[in-house]
């Protein structure tokens, strides 16, 4: 098997599947900057609209029940097509895939910024999700094939994970600034200059690759997976608008279960080149990292959503003030990510991940104690700091654990799985917790009053805390204590398939 050449070669030169280089190539810093810009834009767009939601609802006429689709249209398409996006990158090459994703992201952002109706905005957000489904897996895959395994790759993955963890908090801050100083439409237009900077960097730094053999795209698998997740989210939204026993909810849940079973059957027996090689989940580091990130995605996406609404609807913060309130969260993410590798080196991933999640759960639980008379200092600051430091530390260690030692031919699959798990967890979590909040508010018996709304938000934060705590228990029980030969394990599973 030939050695990898593109890490030190010229743009356009093909890469073959082989051992990682002994040291990072000279242009490694430019590569890392490029993929981090891509990842920042992708993650930022999940939360950048949160602070703008009240303005969007007023301007375009969204109902309260349908407003969450501004977020879910992005996360659903993104999460559902991430694995297919990774396969597309394998087929057409990393640089071509990144440039195509950036171009589509810019186009969808312009169309969304010009939207005149709820349907137009939701369609544009879905287009952004499609572009993100190409950009996210290729960004992590590029790191894994560019940087050699060991401390060099771990630092690169750590920076990438920090960007992924902090992008959501930064998105809320940026969304507040743009909405207040300019207009809500700029939370979409802002992606155009980001693409204008990133695309030339990608052309210069990302060396072209190709697969060793031509692969077919598993389109049926992608359709089944995306349709199943979409039906599940739809059912949860229906439960919030009506009830868990309503026809729409029951039909959605049954349909999601049928499509989920069909997806598993198709991937296992229906295709020679599956979108997901299911027996990779027999590798402990892979399934633990993905399970943990599902809970994190659900907690963080829903947490930012409800915190943004609480600040504006209950405390009556302006968009820019609400965005500024998330600055401590941004700082905490950086602090947690910065010290994550040091803590992991001394105590191991199990302590780092589970300990960070316990701290995050405490922060989320304190959010549930917010009330109409809360202030930033008395109610919002401490939960923000605790939750952000814990989640920042967990995200970096969890990503490093889930990707360390993975062979090049498995890089796209494993990175796609981690991104897919986070985004699907976010979509399902937001839909479920929106239902929880609506049901709690309706059951409060105050007729849609501010007190009822606050009760709904508090109940959603309580469930969010339970999700993070469940992830902590999972990590404490199943994360390997010492360093594992993940590459050997993954390769062994691959040979057996």
UniProtKB/TrEMBL annotation:
It is a multi-pass membrane protein. It is found in: Cell membrane. Residues 31-483 form the Major facilitator superfamily (MFS) profile domain. Residues 1-21 are annotated as: Disordered. It holds the Pfam family MFS_1. Keywords: Antibiotic resistance, Cell membrane, Membrane, Transmembrane, Transmembrane helix, Transport. It comes from Actinacidiphila alni. The chain crosses the membrane at residues 30-53, 65-85, 97-115, 127-147, 159-178, 184-205, 217-237, 243-266, 287-308, 320-339, 351-370, 376-396, 460-478. Its main location: membrane. GO terms for biological process: response to antibiotic. This is Drug resistance transporter, EmrB/QacA subfamily. GO terms for molecular function: transmembrane transporter activity. GO terms for cellular component: plasma membrane.
């Amino acid at each position: 098997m030939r050695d990898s050449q593109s890490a030190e070669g010229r743009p356009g030169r093909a890469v073959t599947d082989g051992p990682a280089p002994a040291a990072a190539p000279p242009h490694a810093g430019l590569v890392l900057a490029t993929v981090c810009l891509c990842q920042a834009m992708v993650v930022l767009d999940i939360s950048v609209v949160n602070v703008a939601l009240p303005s969007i609802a007023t301007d375009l006429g969204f109902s309260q029940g349908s407003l969450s689709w501004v977020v879910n249209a992005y996360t659903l398409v993104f999460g559902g097509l991430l694995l297919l996006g990774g396969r597309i990158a394998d087929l057409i090459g990393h640089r071509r895939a990144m440039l195509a994703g950036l171009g589509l992201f810019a186009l969808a952002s312009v169309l969304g910024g010009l939207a005149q109706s709820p349907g137009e905005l939701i369609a544009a957000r879905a287009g952004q999700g499609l572009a993100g489904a190409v950009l996210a897996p290729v960004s992590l895959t590029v790191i894994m094939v560019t940087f050699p395994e060991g401390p060099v790759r771990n630092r690169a993955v750590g920076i990438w994970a920090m960007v992924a963890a902090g992008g959501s908090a930064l998105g809320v801050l940026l969304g507040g600034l743009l909405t207040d100083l300019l207009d809500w439409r700029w939370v979409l237009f802002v992606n155009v200059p980001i693409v204008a900077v990133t695309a030339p960097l990608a052309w210069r730094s990302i060396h072209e690759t190709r697969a060793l053999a031509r692969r077919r795209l598993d389109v049926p698998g992608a359709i089944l997976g995306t349709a199943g997740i979409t039906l599940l989210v739809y059912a949860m939204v229906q439960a919030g608008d009506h009830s868990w026993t309503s026809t729409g909810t029951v039909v959605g849940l049954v349909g999601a279960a049928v499509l989920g079973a069909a997806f598993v059957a198709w991937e296992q027996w229906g295709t020679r080149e599956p979108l997901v090689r299911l027996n990779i989940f027999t590798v402990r580091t892979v399934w633990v990292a993905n399970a943990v990130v599902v809970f994190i995605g659900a907690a963080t996406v829903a947490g930012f959503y409800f915190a943004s609404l609480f600040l504006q609807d209950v405390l009556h913060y302006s968009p820019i003030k609400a965005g500024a309130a998330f600055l401590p969260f941004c700082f905490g993410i950086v602090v947690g990510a910065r010290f994550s590798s040091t803590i992991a080196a001394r105590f191991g991933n199990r302590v780092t991940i589970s300990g960070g999640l316990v701290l995050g759960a405490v922060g989320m639980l304190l959010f549930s104690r917010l009330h109409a008379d809360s202030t930033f200092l008395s109610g919002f600051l401490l939960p923000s700091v605790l939750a952000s430091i814990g989640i920042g530390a967990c995200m970096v260690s969890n990503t490093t654990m889930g990707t360390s030692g993975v062979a090049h031919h498995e890089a796209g699959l494993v990175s796609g799985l981690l991104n897919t798990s986070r985004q699907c967890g976010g979509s399902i979590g937001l839909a479920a917790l929106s239902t929880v909040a609506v049901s709690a508010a309706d059951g409060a018996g105050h007729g849609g009053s501010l007190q009822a709304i606050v009760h709904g938000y508090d109940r959603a934060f309580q469930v969010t805390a339970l999700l993070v705590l469940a992830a902590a228990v999972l990590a404490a029980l199943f994360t390997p204590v010492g360093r594992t030969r993940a590459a050997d394990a993954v390769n062994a599973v691959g040979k057996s398939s």
